Amino acid sequence: MSESTAPSDTVLLRGGEVHSPADPFATAMVVERGQVAWVGSEGAADAFSAGVDEVVDLEGALVTPAFTDAHVHTTSTGLALTGLDLSGAPSLEAALALVRDFAAARPDDRVLLGHGWDTARWPGGRPPTRAELDEAADGRPLYLSRIDVHSAVVSTALLDLVPGITGRAGYLDGPLTRDAHHAVRGAALGAVSPAQRTEAQRAALAHAASLGIGSVHECAGPEISSEDDFTGLLRLAAEETGPRVVGYWAEWGEEGIDRARALGAVGAAGDLFVDGALGSHTACLHQPYSDAGHTGTAYLDDDAVAAHVIACTEAGLQAGFHAIGDAAVTSVVEGVRAAAEKVGLARVRAARHRVEHAEMLTPETIAAFAELGLTASVQPAFDALWGGADGMYAQRLGAERARTLNPFAALLRAGVPLAFGSDSPVTPLDPWGTVRAAAFHRTPEHRVSVRAAFTAHTRGGWRAIGRDDAGVLVPGAPADYAVWRTEELVVQAPDDRVARWSTDPRSGTPGLPDLTPGGDLPVCLRTVVGGRTVFVRPNE
């Protein structure tokens, strides 16, 4: 395939499979001025061939809407790509060896950054001590975030950069959580040079484009990144060819809303923490953890949620919250319901406020999400990584509670809008893997069809920002699409006994790749955003 880069060009793509509800048998598509102009059959495409600037022979490839990753930390993702990745370390000793090698290889870095350690996967289950980190880093500042990014281990040299750190909540001679973690993370990221930060952002966006991702929702905030990081990313995305970036700024109250608007965010939302994470024992629960004698940490209560939703609704901005534990989700629901009583249910529903993660749900809170028009911005890869009878969820909560987590099918049945994301770098950017994780959830009753999961990862992200006209290949929609090399297309649905599928597009349903676990995932050949090519696979 040749490369088209100008969004003003008129391009005919033909000879493939075009995933479009406008025509389940479509093999061709015309793109003009950055929008989809037509989709249809091969025979009808002949009428367009003479009047276009370029004809692309798809050679049997699949064309789909580009994916939207609805929850990304872009700079951290890029730093994980360019920094130390501990997610594959099989033991504490192996992780410390990787730290030593990394420190030796980067003598000029002001701070050493790493991510992805997970004691649940290590023999003995022990995190590194500060003395071990001081030795491995040769006395330099070192920040290593846990896989869920809600705690971190650090070296003494990094602690020395944060005055009063020992008096902050969450300070221990071990993994730091809560305020202590936020402080050391701010110091670590603050030591990253602007050039290093821009390099990381470019790396993350390029990697996203190579995976068929056309849009990312950046979840930033004062406890997560910085204003310079956020505005720099939005500026980079506007000036350079790549995926779209939609920015959320997680700061509470009137001041946070004013700052979000001034920074160019579409909402005072994203990781506005109502609680923490299960892996770090900081998700807020109604009943104590099975492996700890407490119920986690609450950062915002019902009244704070209500005040923020009221202020955002009246300001015309989205509100949104990070809520994982069942007590945190209840606080969000009660707060949003109180806000609806104050400003009106119709206004709250129209604002499409969001809840990030929303893992521990009950039938009552699911019904409330539907009633209040809340979008569930969820991460199916969490279940693939931590679900199952022997997974981290079961360790933290016990098998019975763990089986209730991430109930995607119940959310869809209730009519709750779903938007899929990765929370990268918590789990990798991996859109087809995300769709597979939802369709083959470790708890069978929570599985959804491949089609429903695909829609949540394409159109769902656009709907989450109030755009119902995008994320689908129909005339008038933005020309955000990806071209894939894949095997035969099927229509695949969940079943309690076995995944059933068919090569017959039932009821005019366009097919999708067979995502049965064990098989190869589709390979991205090209990604196009607004009619402009942002990725072409080398040698294709």
UniProtKB/TrEMBL annotation:
Origin: domain of life: Bacteria
Protein name (Swiss-Prot/TrEMBL): Amidohydrolase 3 domain-containing protein
One Gene Ontology MF term: hydrolase activity, acting on carbon-nitrogen (but not peptide) bonds
Residue ranges that the Swiss-Prot or TrEMBL entry lists as coiled coil: none
Upper taxonomic lineage: Bacteria, Bacillati, Actinomycetota, Actinomycetes, Kitasatosporales
Organism: Streptomyces avermitilis (strain ATCC 31267 / DSM 46492 / JCM 5070 / NBRC 14893 / NCIMB 12804 / NRRL 8165 / MA-4680)
Pfam family, one: Amidohydro_3
Ranges where the Amidohydrolase domain occurs: 54-535
